Amino acid sequence: MRETQRDIIRALGVKPQINAREEIESRIQFCKDYLRHTRAKGFVLGISGGQDSSLGGRLAQLACEQLRDEGHDAHFVAMRLPHGVQHDEADAQAALAFIAPDETVTVNIKGAVDGLVSELRDEDLSDFNRGNVKARMRMVAQYALAADRGLLVLGTDHAAEAVTGFFTKFGDGAFDLTPLGGLTKEQGRELMRELGSPARLYEKVPTADLLDGNPGRTDEDELGVRYTDIDTYLTGGDVDDAVAEIIEGYYARSAHKRHTPVNPYESWWRRAN
Ligand SMILES: Nc1ncnc2c1ncn2[C@@H]1O[C@H](COP(=O)(O)OP(=O)(O)OC[C@H]2O[C@@H]([n+]3cccc(C(=O)O)c3)[C@H](O)[C@@H]2O)[C@@H](O)[C@H]1O
Ligand SMILES: Nc1ncnc2c1ncn2[C@@H]1O[C@H](COP(=O)(O)OP(=O)(O)OP(=O)(O)O)[C@@H](O)[C@H]1O
Ligand SMILES: [Mg+2]
User: Fold this and answer.
1) What is the ipTM of this complex?
2) Quick one: angle between helices 227-234 and 185-194, nearest 10?
3) 166: Cβ below 6 Å to ligand 1?
4) What are phi and psi of 152, to 5 degrees?
5) pLDDT value at position 124?
6) What 3-state class would DSSP assign to 128?
7) Residue 222 near ligand 1, beta carbon < 6 Å
8) Atom of ligand 1 at shortest distance to CA of 166?
9) pTM
């Protein structure tokens, strides 16, 4: 195994193999423990129709149900946050049916995104940068609801995204806790199967779906590397040197996304590439 590969695996806490049932139970327990520790009243999470939020949402719903059975207050709010009309709304509805959340709240973020972009008076804001505004607007919506209801905001960050920094800083990268930390994409899929999810939710091609000009653009197309290769790398397997170098390049460039913002007392960034 490459030395950098070993360091990354350790830093992200990836296990080469998992027992899906045990992972489900420990991650639900983590959500329950954290909620009780903070005395918050439950969780909120944006539900897109993709694998990650379907998994995170179902784990959160199960955690809240178990807490209620144990006599505690706990409530899960699934947030639908379409930008206008979502091309794969049917998948989002299938995700909601699978999660069976205590409550669903829908906020169309398009008006807020358009309003902000027009106030910026930057006619040339690229589709790419506008996409990151969408991800941050979803964060704003979730935190507004969380504050109003005394909830915590869940994230869906996991090892296969953390390694490349493939998330919007302070957008979907902003959350109070993520139950999926350390998992590869395939391990997430194993948990979905174990939870009895419909196949369409975990067989769906991953997409950030942030571009007006290219709806449903696949993550793999944008990244230039396949999740199967990222997963192989993260579980200690061999990938082509060229692939490993792409992954390690992403990891180095995105270090700032895996740290709290720097201040004059910090020096980690001086040792980073
Ligand atoms: N070295 C450094 N130290 C501290 N801060 C640094 C920095 N370099 C950039 N920055 C800051 O970071 C900003 C760039 O980061 P960011 O705003 O995140 O933007 P960026 O990384 O350029 O774009 C986000 C990427 O994540 C993908 N994404 C987003 C959302 C969801 C998903 C998904 O999988 O569903 C994927 C998206 O498709 C895109 O490729 C810069 O504008 C700058 O403010
Ligand atoms: N249209 C949307 N409605 C609600 N939440 C969204 C939407 N798009 C993105 N999100 C939120 O942003 C998170 C990051 O998106 P990401 O694409 O990584 O996850 P996903 O869509 O759940 O799964 P996948 O990565 O397989 O597409 C989602 O997990 C979800 O919480
Ligand atoms: Mg997605």
Assistant:
1) 0.99
2) 100
3) yes
4) -105, 145
5) 80
6) helix
7) yes
8) 26
9) 0.97
